[in-house]
Design a protein that fits this description.
This protein is mainly beta and 235 residues long. The chain contains five helices and twelve strands.
Length: 235
């Protein structure tokens, strides 16, 4: 699943890639590491003319609770295979599709009793276009309006299944050729979309000490890490 993500692109680059306008005073602070369970604000692409800001963790418009985290903590991802039967996501794919721009995400590989962190990133372009769904929720007491999103996931391709080797899932990574179709209005057939080819995805091991630290949101969290080892004596 995709529970940790990054967004370090400049607003001007996002606007150019997705052919969108940049709202006045739109934030441009890089996120080198962000956990879904902190419900971060993200720059999101929809069919609208502007880039938008939404919080990670989808809150369906029918939610009547007062504290959004009650449900947002359960909805950072949506399994593509079950979105039509899951109440939180039902019906959204036909009308409320979005793209979550990502400069790379984080995944854990199980190796015996150990878990190794990896950074997964695009090989020959600046960012991933993760397919997602969004919703608009109004807090019952304050009447505050909040836009939120979830990242669609699918069965991992063979390359990423070696990394996320426990559940073998991956974000639904759109190829550039399918971006316009995904953002268009109306019903959509996901079987006609092109996913980013496996050979356009790269990954490397990162430092567990950084990603598990109290302040993982720093550039070094994405850096390649070579595990230290001590060669035993041959004699």
């Amino acid at each position: 699943m995709c529970y940790s993500n990054s967004s370090t692109s400049k607003n001007i680059d996002l606007a150019k890639k997705y052919k969108k306008e940049i709202p006045f005073q739109f934030p441009d602070t890089p996120l080198f590491y962000a956990s879904a369970f902190s419900f971060p604000e993200w720059r999101i692409v929809t069919k609208e003319s502007n880039l938008e800001l939404m919080n990670w963790g989808l809150i369906p418009n029918w939610f009547k609770g007062g504290y959004f985290a009650e449900i947002a903590a359960k909805t950072p991802n949506a399994r593509l295979e079950t979105i039509d039967s899951t109440p939180s996501f039902k019906g959204l794919i036909n009308h409320q599709r979005c793209i979550i721009p990502s400069t790379g995400y984080f995944e854990w590989q199980h190796k015996g009793k150990d878990k190794l962190p990896f950074f997964v990133f695009p090989k020959s372009q600046e960012l991933f276009s993760m397919a997602g769904l969004f919703s608009e929720w109004i807090q019952p007491e304050t009447k505050q309006k909040m836009k939120t999103f979830t990242i669609l996931t699918c069965e991992a391709n063979p390359f990423l299944a070696e990394i996320h080797n426990s559940k073998k899932r991956m974000p639904y990574l759109l190829d550039d050729s399918s971006i316009e179709q995904w953002l268009s209005a109306g019903e959509i057939d996901v079987n006609k979309l092109n996913l980013l080819p496996e050979n356009q995805i790269d990954t490397h091991l990162i430092d567990k000490r950084i990603i598990n630290s109290k302040e993982p949101n720093r550039k070094e969290v994405q850096a390649f890490y070579q595990e230290d080892f001590i060669q035993g004596s041959l004699f």
